[in-house]
Write the structure tokens for this entry.
Amino acid sequence: MLLCVALIGCFSCALAPTPGAVPSPSPTTTLSPTQAIYLPVIGGGGESPVATPTPKAPTPRPKPTPTPWPPPVPKPGYGIQVHFFAGDLGTTIKWINGLGVGWVKQQVEWHTIEHLPGEFDWELLDHVVASCEAMGFKLLLSVVRAPDWLRADELESGPPTDYAQFGRFMAQLAARYKGRVAAYELWNEPNLAREWRGDTLDPARFVALVVEGSKAVRTADPDALVISGGPGVTGIDDGVEAIDDRVFLRGMYAAGVAQWVDGIGVHPYSAANPPDESWQDATHVASGYNSHPSFFFRDTLEDYHAIMLEYGDVQHQLWVTEFGWPSAENMGGMDTTGWEYGREVSERQQAEYVVRAYHMGDERAWVGPMFLWNLNLATIWGAGNPASAYSLLRPDGSYRPAYLALRWAEPLGR
């Protein structure tokens, strides 16, 4: 996630359907039939009564049905990051299926699986893997946060003191889901202290962790892909709270990361800046966070690609394992203190930026699968959490314009 002047944590367009043309954004909304009122027939009077005809039963009026939506456009190379471990699994799968994407990413916190040495709880993850497999989704698991009993510092998230323990866990994970999980992302934003507590920020140390994880996955499931954890984009390079992501990536290459992975993870968050803007442009749409390349989707992609070429890497693709734009519109009384740019992105702009970013990936052969962050955090955490501003759904589960825009987005051919 974007780390700005103060470290900030991870966190055309189709509009909502026109009333009367397609159903309400809520997937459970139905229309009620109009109720007709019928008056009784009154018979004649006098000496010669007229026979009262038997009234005919009214012809039933057809029950109105919502106009069906066109099916989602298939996008096998597009992905979405999902949070399966809260809420109804079946509903979450339906939301994903409604987007037409081919890839799904779920983050796995190691400490929630292995509570104590050798004591594993696989139940929830088993259901996730089985559900994605049944629906034909390719699954990327991002593995983070070692158990506290393997770490030097219990604060926030960090690696084990012994990197071989990471290899041990990855071997068990990959063996359990052999042939069912398509790819593994090893760690998350390792250039930020909040993801690397208890260890020294150092790209060479991160690569050492990747080596242990990669060897384990490739032994347990040779067909699974290994992706390096994407650095967090940041305007800070103090070596304590953060190392600039471009500096960190060069350090990863210098430490030999290319030989251990099948793709390079990248998190090109963009504050409120449109995806095709550059920090060097004369004018900007957003009012701030536009003076550094780390605040721009396009600059991050192109800078990372240039670094890959510096080290002679023409074999790998950049896997965009997180990206997105926050919009506080229609999210209630959301507190945007410290990330006020969330108020500068309307829901309409969010939808436009998301689709445009996917298309920019389509246009670049060196960009691999892209995973939008996120589908459904708003339905879990509500409007009180800033991460909900990135969600494709509102807290009540209704679709935001970005959901509908992605549903019908046409991928560009390569």
Summary: Strands lie at 75-81, 101-109, 114-116, 119-120, 138-144, 183-186, 225-228, 263-266, 318-323, 367-372. DSSP finds ten helices and ten strands in the chain.
